[in-house]
Write a structure and sequence with these properties.
By secondary structure, this protein is mostly helical. The chain has eight helices and no strands. The chain folds into two domains: about 130 residues, no CATH class; about 60 residues, no CATH class.
Length: about 200
């Protein structure tokens, strides 16, 4: 039954993935492709929509995948499965926080989990970046293509903007990037370049 499968899959992701939604990306990508037959391009679209809509990334993507596979009830099952472990863990931690906050074992575990989370986020970024920028393989033709140069220019523009304007609102980054992407797409069409 798809509803139970969605619930259990996202329950596992919610229980055993540390570092937030970005750290879950490689696992969500693997599960969605191997279990439910989504293509890597569909996963990238899910990620783009989930990152640019309000709310936590992991909840957004769980809801999106659940909706695609099981409609409204699938979305409820996937989202509930994802948030239930965190909800229970936070309740337990909140109850015992004073007792555990100075515990050396807990502090050591958190110290070990931080670099792991960074590694998972880096792996997801690399995997998605390779799929978006080099889906047909790494070659000189790819690197000098309109799509690659446009994507790199937009990335560098947003990077520099955020670097030089401290506390730049992420909503503006999303809106500006979307506008630039639309402009690049239309510019490509006017020049006779197909952007997929």
């Amino acid at each position: 039954m798809i509803y139970l499968e969605l619930f259990l899959t996202f329950l596992k992701l919610g229980a055993f993935t540390f570092g937030g939604g970005a750290a879950m990306m490689p696992f969500i990508q693997e599960e969605a492709v191997s279990k439910w037959g989504f293509t890597p391009e569909e996963i990238i679209n899910f990620i783009a929509i989930s990152e640019s809509t309000p709310g936590p990334f992991a909840v957004n993507i769980a809801t999106f995948v659940g909706t695609e596979k099981g409609g409204f009830l699938g979305a409820v099952c996937a989202t509930l499965g994802l948030v239930l472990p965190s909800f229970i863990i936070i309740l337990v931690i909140a109850k015992c926080y004073e007792k555990f906050k100075t515990n050396k074992v807990v502090a050591g575990a958190m110290t070990g989990l931080r670099p792991t989370s960074v590694g998972l986020i880096a792996a997801a970024t690399l995997s998605i970046g390779m799929e978006v920028l080099f889906s047909s393989g790494v070659s000189l033709a790819t690197v000098i293509s309109y799509e690659f140069i446009a994507a790199l220019a937009i990335f560098l523009a947003m990077f520099l903007l955020c670097l030089f304007i401290k506390k730049f609102n992420p909503i503006y980054v999303i809106l500006i990037t979307a506008a630039l992407g639309i402009a690049v797409g239309y510019g490509g069409e006017l020049m006779g370049i197909s952007i997929i």
